[in-house]
Structure formats: C-alpha cells, structure tokens
C-alpha cells in the first residue's frame, strides 16, 4: 500500500514513533495547560461547538478509518485480529455514537473547535497505527499461544469498560439532576478516585494492550495514562478549589490510594 509517496511500512514506523513521542509531550503540555473543555473550559480558544457534536466528529475516525483500513491487512481474515479490532470498535461505538446521544440533553458546557481538531488528528493517527498493527504488521498467532494473555487482558478490558461506562452514566445523571450544575460525585469508585471514568478507560486499554501485545497498543495505553492521568489531577485540583468543604481531600485523582 502506498500513501503520499511513502511506503506503508515507513508510514507505520513514523506514526508509531509519533505516538510514543506524544507521551512525554502530553505530560509536559498538560502540566502547563488543561485541555479547555468541560469543567476546564475557558475562553480564548476560538469558536466552540456543543460537546456531543464535538465527541461525534472528533472520535469518528476510530470507526470509519478502522473499518476502511482493516480489510487491507494481510491478517484481516484471521479470527484473532478480527476479535481485537472488534473490541476497539465496540469501545468507539460507545464513545462516538452512544455517549454523545446520552450527553445531548445533559451537557451545558462548550467545546472549542481547535481542541476537537487536535483530537480528530490524534484519532486518525491512532486508528491508522492500531488497525495496521493488528491486521497487517502483527505476526499471525494461534489461539493456544495467546490464551493466558487473552483471559487476563480480556478481563481487564471488560472490567475497565464497565467502570468507564457506569461512571460516565453517573456523571451524566448528576448533571441532569443538578440541572446543569456540577456537583461532587459520591459512592462506588468515586469514593476512591476523582475520575473513575478515566481510570476505567485506562484499564480498558491496558487489557487490550495485553491482548494485542504490540508496541502500538502499549503506546496507546501509555498515551492514555499520560492524557487522562494529567487531566484527572487537574480535575481533583478543580474540585478542591470549587468544593473546598464538600470534596474529600483524601480522594485520589486516578489510581486508588496512590495518585
Ligand atoms: N482515551 C483518551 O485519551 C480520552 C481522552 C478524553 C476523554 N476520554 C473519555 O471520554 C469520556 C468523557 O471525557 P470527559 O473528559 O468529558 O469526562 P468528564 O469531564 O468526566 O465529563 C463527563 C460528563 O459528565 C459531566 N460531568 C463531569 N463532571 C461532573 C460533575 N462533577 N457533576 C455533574 N456532571 C459532571 C460532564 O458535563 P460537561 O460536558 O457539561 O462538562 C460530561 O458531560 C470519558 O469516559 C473519558 O474516559 C478518553
């Protein structure tokens, strides 16, 4: 496959390297600036759109690009790559379609187009890298070789997805109940971490990377740790400032008892 004069294996190498380079850059960038959407929204980032529309547009490459690229891979007819890609697609059907539909009548915040564009470009890079990694560049494996990895990784993936979806649902319920006001969430994993939705999502990609066992998938997991870990820390600081009397100071940001 040729792309813009580049050999596909070169392109895959460059996107994989970029994914890894984005990990320290994200940590450094987010130390100085939160992504200005949701509770961290602030003016000065250009025109905005509604959060559900932003989520739908910026996450969409994870569906259309993945579905377009997957069949071009030399392992695309093998059941294991198909299974791994299906898990990725299931996660993003929720994030791209179901989550914005649930958020539609609830979210009152604004989303800068400039931030949505950055996320859109990241999703193009990541969907390309993950899909080519799974369907083309990963060695073909037999299910007996990967059983332990699939049981462990699959368990983490399912548990993480459950925590992510139920925590997002609880936040949306509170947002609706509070008629657009932010409140301090209580109960369940919220008693241990400020952002269990971020924790759940990160555990999902940990489980998935154990199943994939590829540099591309581990790169995505590490990027998610960097991005959501930093944002969880900013959110904890935001709650402590905004709800000084209500927010339990011992509640961690992202990892129970640790961080
Ligand atoms: N893989 C990645 O790198 C990545 C990056 C970003 C996000 N995500 C995922 O995308 C999802 C959404 O992310 P997000 O950053 O928008 O999450 P978030 O800040 O926790 O917001 C989730 C929803 O809950 C509402 N909400 C948040 N805190 C609330 C509170 N204290 N009281 C009432 N309502 C509250 C928000 O309303 P408003 O919209 O009005 O603020 C929003 O609609 C999460 O599941 C996250 O894991 C993944």
Automatic annotation (TrEMBL):
Belongs to the steroid 5-alpha reductase family. One of its GO terms (cellular component) is membrane. Its main location: membrane. Residues 110-259 form the 3-oxo-5-alpha-steroid 4-dehydrogenase C-terminal domain. It is found in: Membrane. This is Steroid 5-alpha-reductase DET2. Its EC number is 1.3.1.22.
